[in-house]
Amino acid sequence: MYELQNIVKSYRRRQQEVLAFHAESFTVETGEYVAVVGPSGSGKTTLLSMLGGMLSPDTGRVVYDGQSLYDLAVAERTQWRRKAIGFVFQTFNLIPYLTAVENVQVPLFLHGLPSAEQRDRAAALLEQVGLAERMDHKPGELSTGQQQRVALARTLANDPGVILADEPTGNLDPDSCEVVLSLFDRFVSDGRTIIMVTHDPAAARRAARQVKLQNGQISEPADDVLERAA
Ligand SMILES: Nc1ncnc2c1ncn2[C@@H]1O[C@H](COP(=O)(O)OP(=O)(O)OP(=O)(O)O)[C@@H](O)[C@H]1O
Ligand SMILES: [Mg+2]
Questions:
Q1: 92, 104, 108, 153: most buried, per Cβ within 10 A?
Q2: Helix extents (H) in 157-222
Q3: Which residues line ligand 1 (CB under 6 A)?
Q4: Tens digits of residue pLDDT in 124-146
Q5: Phi, psi at 57, each rounded to 5°
């Protein structure tokens, strides 16, 4: 489903060029659960951004179900992203002046769902992540773990086929961490795809496949990855 072909991505800052990511070929099949590990600055977020249609490579193609993403017009790519992709960030990017249920409604609103349906679906999702009692709280009135669960409910709102997660458990206590990872397990058992950046070896082990990034280059050694993931 995902195919990276001859990708080079570098950033230029003050005369200095940083080769952030390169790969001749990298494939993720539908239904795979892939953990991406690697040191800070190794290109993990760069990779996720390119997979999410948010960052164009300098050369090469990112192909999703036969479609080369960066050959689409910007508006088409945005539409594709809203439909197909759910992002989970380390910082949750909740809107501070909206309540939990309103935050979850945002993607549904963007999708054009009638407002009563938005509210019902958002409430059901919050219930699923154990936050039925916190619907009308704003992010500032929620714990970190609760905020991440609201963010996760929002991610799931449009029923994406793919989750791209950038250190989704980085800021969480063990209980909240488990809530997130169990939801991911369920998501994958539905036949959907997850690509998850993590520094947590235990989280990486939940994925069926682990890849490692170093200096912008992917490798799939197996054994040492999990011990050194942190
Ligand atoms: N907007 C940018 N401008 C210039 N250089 C950048 C930019 N974004 C990232 N880089 C550089 O590209 C490289 C890869 O960055 P990236 O954010 O993908 O790393 P990462 O693996 O996600 O790191 P971390 O674990 O710290 O989040 C780094 O060397 C970084 O300094
Ligand atoms: Mg990063």
A1: 104
A2: 174-189, 201-206
A3: 11, 13, 18, 20, 38, 40-46
A4: 999 988 899 999 999 999 998 89
A5: -70, 160
